[in-house]
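idk why but the lab printer keeps eating my pages so im just putting this in chat instead. protein + 6-O-phosphoryl inosine monophosphate:
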Amino acid sequence: MAGTCIIGLQWGDEAKGKLVDLLAKEHDVVVRYQGGANAGHTVVVGDEKYKLSLIPSGILTPGVKSVVTGGVVLNPKTILEEIDGLTSRAVAVEERLLISDRTHVIFPWHMAEDAVMDANPAGGESIGTTQRGIGPCYQDKVGRSYAIRLGDLYRDDFRQRIESIADVKTRTLAGMNGRTDPITFDGAAIHQEYQAYAARLKPLVCDTTAYLLDAVEDDKRILFEGAQGALLDIDHGTFPFVTSSNSSGVGVSGGSGIPGRWITKVLGVAKAYSTRVGGGPFPTELDNEIGQHIRDLGNEYGTVTNRPRRCGWFDALAVRYTARLSGVDALAVMLLDVLSELPQINICTAYEIDGKRVTNFPSHVDDLRKAVPVLETLPGWQQDITGVRRMKDLPTGARAYLDRLSELVGRPIEIVSVGPDREQTILEGGESLFAPRTKHFVRGANNDYPPMSESSASTSPELDAVPRERWPRHIAVIMDGNGRWAERQGLPRIEGHRRGVTSVRAVTEECSRLNIEQLTLYCLSSENWKRPALELEFLMHLLEQYMIEERSTIMDNNIRVAVIGRRDDIPEGVLREMDKTIELSAANTGTRLCLAINYGGRAELVDAVQRIATAVQSGQLNVEKIDEQLISNYMYTAGMRDPDLLIRTAGEMRISNFLLWQISYAEIWVTDRCWPEFREPELHQAIVEYAGRDRRFGGLSGPA
Ligand code: GDP
Ligand code: IMO
Ligand code: MG
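predcted complex ->
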């Protein structure tokens, strides 16, 4: 299991939605765990623009489950509108979405209370809420007596409960706003309305805590989508100008029900500047033409309320605080392109409060109100960066700006966004961008390790009759026909690969039993890398599993494992397991099992020529010294003897795509059997027929 979190580090709208959409395909499940329809995420995919609020931004990715957990407050009407909007644009929402029966439901009185409270703030300045009933619904959740959860809508006493709460709410609201025209909530009508919503939502409603705990145990990859930003966190933000949930990293576990120990990576998202919607202090605010310039270029208008967002310089003091608070590993800096035209850019590095320099984020809003930002000025880059896709291609000024942000916040930057589209992103972290998982998991496939049949190691009288000196010492096999075998059985191709693993084990064990010196298995040629992504992913999954699952068998049989071929395209996690097995078995003295992965005659030659040329160039190698022996030391098979017998399955009479150097002098034996059905009897037959070939032994058995 691996869990990656996307947490906003400012006051919301950091472009979390874009990032979640971008990373969704690397995950199995996307989880929204707090907030409600106060959130607004805009996701741009080519010409399409999607506005999401309650539904996780993973919804646009096929094969990924999106889960709304119990930490969320849910307005059923809003989510149904969102579902309808997406469905009308051919997004298969109903296949991809799950909603927790523990979510607290927003009712009309919550919206009314929100409006009344926000218009009559106790402390003078209004919070400027989104008026979506978020605060009052969370209030009822904590207060318990008037709370209704989604699961309650399906209970027999729903009508009775709603009618009694509607009465109470009518009276309290009249007391709150002191108006002469009090709003009356009609319990029966509301019941009817919500019953209809409940009926429509029913197929999506479940116990998501149980679902997610299972997902954890099934080793799935989970992406947690934060809403709002850490400075709006109810406990750790700029209280009272905050939202009513834990929107910083501290809220992930509580809201989702997944223990914090499963969270393996936290990505903190920040804009290259700051924005804020609604009330509350904002030390770096630019209430001037620069602020307006940023607003215009960044299109800084609220997704939910369309209010102009307040804009200001990047506040490194605040983001350093929220990055620490949220346990951030690395940063994603978004909307960098918005600053491209500015001749100079400021960063806030500290505050001055009552004449004193402060570097810790103040806990009281009154202190924050007094904070005067200490600014550091950097030159702008004044060139378009929206087409840049690699960090090193950014203008020097932009890189210097990012380096400084990273230094001040104290976290590396792994992602930079230079435009709203998915494509307009610089991804620097490679594999480490996503939380590492213990085992590679392929969506939509049977991920179990294939069951192994008992070895059918039969003694073979023909083989026993062959004198030992005529046996091959090194057998190589081109494992072909997995896909063909599967197609013949009416199974998906990947099932053929799964089954192929059982042959790998059978043949390896038999070679070990027969004391064959070396067995080379040509498993995955570089041609395999052109296969569909799912097939390739599954092959990598099998390879990793093989390395883990077979370790004990390998050790029991005293087998020494080697892997040859190019390592470049093999995922990091798979390489790790591979190297572990190689290292562990290094001292074994029995059969050497050599797995050829990402091999191909030409690639091997190219690699060898490059390495030889480099050695000549650096003066380490004299051209005169290049001979057959020396070249062999530069091939993948350096130090290994050539195979004597090359077995090719699936009947193909061509030799393609393997390690040319290695098989140059091998005897070839071809069988029509596909690899998944190649077992001990076929192996025995190949050895027997090999032994019968006189040319191989230079007429050894005949007269001179
Ligand atoms: P969220 O609430 O954190 O998901 O963010 P919003 O979607 O509310 O606001 C971010 C806005 O910035 C959206 O309109 C995005 O389409 C847009 N956006 C995202 N990344 C970039 C970027 O790198 N450059 C520009 N110019 N716009 C971006
Ligand atoms: P996303 O997920 C920006 C702000 C409101 C208000 C305060 C409280 O798009 O980043 P609430 O309605 O939650 O009681 O309002 O919080 N706010 C947001 N600001 N982005 C958001 O979400 C926000 N959600 C709430 O403007 O100041
Ligand atoms: Mg937003």
